[in-house]
Design a protein that fits this description.
Layout (H helix, E strand, L loop, with lengths): L1 E2 L4 E5 L7 E6 L10 E8 L2 E6 L3 E4 L5 E6 L10 E11 L3 E5 L5 E6 L4
Parallel strand pairs: 1-3, 2-10
Antiparallel strand pairs: 3-7, 4-5, 4-8, 6-7, 8-9, 8-10
Length: 113
């Protein structure tokens, strides 16, 4: 499931599937030239995870695509909202953050006993 900053990604407590896939785009450059992709999750200003191994899949044009974060144990254990952003590192160590305004939102819901 791909989502963007105007949507909410729902997952149950402790689940590790499905992976988090975030649409990125709206840039003038070719996203396949980005050297590193980083997905960061934060709750109440405290980092929950930082994934420097996030993968990128190009879209229908060179200035759009999807960045994928595969959940690891512990990342979805705490209930509530999580803010997510994606950081791209362009050649010459030039960073860019997605989405450019606000954050993507993940909501971890309680699972039944």
């Amino acid at each position: 499931m791909n989502f963007n900053e105007d949507e909410v990604f729902y997952i149950k407590q402790g689940d590790l599937e499905p992976p988090l896939e975030i649409e990125v785009g709206g840039v003038s450059g070719n996203l396949t030239q980005v050297s590193d992709w980083l997905v960061i999750g934060s709750r109440n200003g405290v980092e929950v995870f930082s994934d420097s191994g996030a993968s990128f899949t190009p879209g229908s044009t060179t200035n759009v695509g999807t960045v994928k974060h595969v959940w690891a144990a512990g990342e979805t254990d705490e209930l509530g909202d999580m803010d997510i952003e994606v950081r791209a590192v362009w050649p010459g160590d030039r960073p860019q953050t997605f989405p450019p305004r606000n954050y993507c939102r993940v909501l971890v819901s309680k699972k039944l006993p």
